[in-house]
TrEMBL record:
Chain positions recorded as GTP binding sites: 9-11, 21, 65, 94
Stated family: Belongs to the MobA family.
GO CC entries: cytoplasm
Pfam families recorded: NTP_transf_3
Function according to Swiss-Prot or TrEMBL: Transfers a GMP moiety from GTP to Mo-molybdopterin (Mo-MPT) cofactor (Moco or molybdenum cofactor) to form Mo-molybdopterin guanine dinucleotide (Mo-MGD) cofactor.
Catalytic activity: Mo-molybdopterin + GTP + H(+) = Mo-molybdopterin guanine dinucleotide + diphosphate
Entry keywords, A to Z: Cytoplasm, GTP-binding, Magnesium, Metal-binding, Molybdenum cofactor biosynthesis, Nucleotide-binding, Nucleotidyltransferase, Transferase
Name under which the protein is recorded: Probable molybdenum cofactor guanylyltransferase
Chain ranges of the MobA-like NTP transferase domain: 7-157
Binding-site residues for Mg(2+), renumbered to this chain: 94
């Protein structure tokens, strides 16, 4: 198996959710617990990129952002800076439907040459469910220094591999940003 660390991004403002996003309850469990459950059959090398004490109930290492207020890119920068493995699975904290199978697919299809491997359908790219190589750290730092914080701009600068998925395969990759989106999800599943 490839040496791998999983980093879950749990920073940011959660302005649309208005409460700590990773801790929102879905089917009686915080989002982040669903995500950890999907990761554990693969590895227990899990670290949370957060400064929030609210995640202290989880046993995993927590790392605060090295550069604050830079969005997910700042979280990825912190993750890769602390990483001791070449491959790093970066996940947002708002994807409660993610499955072990999809994560395994991503890991198995990543190649050293790719730098970054992510899923995308015709209509949607999922940069915050991806494998990121440590060797892209300098490009991320330059992007942060020049305030180019959009994930899609980072992808444009670097070689990356896209695992193509059908439109109907987006569902388990859905990220939930607000209570309205959570209500829609619950309705969808009922
Ligand atoms: N470590 C870290 N993670 C972040 C940061 N900003 C966003 N994230 C994470 O990145 C993922 C996507 O976040 P977004 O939905 O883009 O932003 P958000 O600030 O959480 O939410 P909004 O304020 O509603 O946009 C989530 O897992 C966030 O926890 C940050 O500055 N640092």
């Amino acid at each position: 198996m490839k040496a791998l660390t999983v980093f879950i991004l749990c920073g940011g403002k959660s302005s649309r959710m208005q409460s700590e996003k990773g801790l929102v309850l879905f089917q009686d469990k915080p989002f982040i617990d669903h995500i950890i459950q999907a990761i554990l059959p693969i590895t227990n090398q899990i670290k949370l990129i957060t400064a929030s004490k609210q995640y202290d109930y989880l046993e995993y290492e927590k790392i605060p952002d090295l550069i604050v207020d830079k969005g997910p890119l700042g979280g990825i920068y912190t993750a890769l800076s602390h990483s001791e493995t070449e491959f790093n699975l970066i996940l947002s904290c708002d994807i409660p439907l993610i499955s072990t199978e999809l994560l395994q697919e991503l890991i198995s299809k990543h190649t050293k040459e790719a730098g970054i491997t992510i899923f995308a359908s015709e209509s949607k790219t999922h940069p915050l469910i991806g494998i990121y190589s440590k060797n892209i750290l300098s490009v991320i730092k330059e992007s942060i220094d020049s305030d180019e914080l959009k994930m899609m701009d980072l992808l444009a600068k670097l070689p990356h591999q896209i695992i193509k998925i059908e439109e109907n395969e987006n569902f388990p990759l859905t990220n939930i940003n607000s209570i309205d989106e959570l209500n829609d999800l619950n309705i969808n599943l009922s």
